[in-house]
Design goal:
Elements: H1 10-16, E1 18-21, E2 53-56, H2 65-68, E3 73-76, H3 93-99, H4 102-108, E4 110-112, H5 127-130, E5 134-135, E6 138-139, H6 141-152, E7 165-166, E8 172-175, H7 176-180, H8 184-196, H9 201-209, H10 212-215, E9 221-222, H11 226-234
Parallel strand pairs: 7-9
Antiparallel strand pairs: 1-2, 3-8, 4-8, 5-6
Helix pairs in contact: 6-9
Bound molecules: 2-acetamido-2-deoxy-beta-D-glucopyranose (NAG) (2 copies).
Length: 279
């Protein structure tokens, strides 16, 4: 079992680790401007139109251009390439991004980057029943969800769901159209809630982790079968699947910290013969 999940912060995703991948001609190009690196000349309207990847890792990173130039498709993803929650046999985000089907995202409006059900599906939170739940006295996400939902959402527009389920970890694609289907005031309210809530980041982040799919128009329980999800999202259609997992795709690791030397070196210090690109 996972003893300590890393702090999966939607807050970080939203404010600090905002990584926007803009797809142009079906290919990804990376540009991670650092503050002291010389920057290309700004076009006359003050916005860089050539940026395809922005890592807004610092508070002072300028993301104001997003308001003017919101890309067609955005992917929210954590900064580290190898992480226990990446839905890949090597926990590698690279093939996940390479295989990700923009055409599916364009059709679906929102697409989770994780298909396996373990952690999050089919019923992670029952807001009413779970209210006040703690883990040995420490408040849990499901224990605070009901209250948080009332603070985050407009109750008349978004009644409290009976059950919330989505595969974990706040990595997903979303289209501009989906984002714009909400008024900007909603996003301001979410941000202000994050800034003001007395909840620990590990809780407020996870509340959003289990809210993004609802915010972006999906049912509160958004758990497509693993077979359908891998096929539509990643074009992986020929594996044998149960409802919740497909053979050889993802195993919940014994710890949330990958071993030193991963992906070359495994849990027992064995050579894994990783053949993907590195570096
Ligand atoms: C599934 O298809 C891919 C590419 O078409 C191939 O590399 C892989 O071996 C196939 N897997 C199975 C289990 O047939
Ligand atoms: C890696 O390759 C070595 C040498 O060919 C082999 O003995 C070992 O079993 C392989 N390890 C795995 C995990 O496949």
């Amino acid at each position: 079992m996972l003893t300590s999940r890393p702090i999966v912060l939607s807050l970080a995703t939203f404010i600090c680790l905002l990584v926007l991948l803009v797809v142009r001609d079906g290919s990804f190009l990376a540009s991670t401007p650092s503050n002291d690196a010389p920057r290309p000349k700004q076009p006359s309207d003050g916005y860089r139109h050539d940026v395809e990847l922005v890592v807004a890792s610092m508070k002072n990173e300028d993301t104001s251009w997003i308001q003017k130039y919101l890309p067609d498709c955005l992917i929210f993803i954590h900064a580290s390439r190898f992480a226990w929650h990446n839905d890949d046999p090597d926990y590698d985000a690279l093939p996940t991004l390479r295989n990700f089907r923009i055409s599916h995202l364009q059709e679906a409006g929102y697409a989770n980057l994780r298909c396996v059900w373990v952690i999050g599906c089919p019923a992670e939170i029952r807001p009413v029943e779970d209210e006040g739940h703690t883990n040995s006295g420490v408040p849990s996400t499901k224990g605070v969800f009901r209250q948080a939902w009332h603070e985050l959402m407009m109750p008349e527009e978004a009644p409290l769901p009976e059950v919330v389920g989505v595969s974990c970890c706040s990595q997903f694609g979303v289209t501009r159209e989906t984002i714009r289907s909400r008024p900007v005031e909603d996003y301001v309210r979410f941000r202000d809630w994050l800034l003001r809530t007395p909840l620990e980041d590990s809780l407020s982040g996870r509340v959003l982790e289990f809210s993004w799919h609802i915010i972006f128009g999906k049912e509160a329980v958004h758990c497509p079968s693993a077979q359908e999800c891998y096929c539509k999202t990643f074009g992986i259609c020929n594996t044998t699947c149960s409802e919740s997992a497909c053979d050889g795709r993802y195993t919940l690791p014994p710890s949330s910290t990958l071993p030193d030397g991963w992906p070359r070196v495994g849990w027992e210090h064995e050579e894994r013969n990783f053949t993907g690109p590195l570096g």
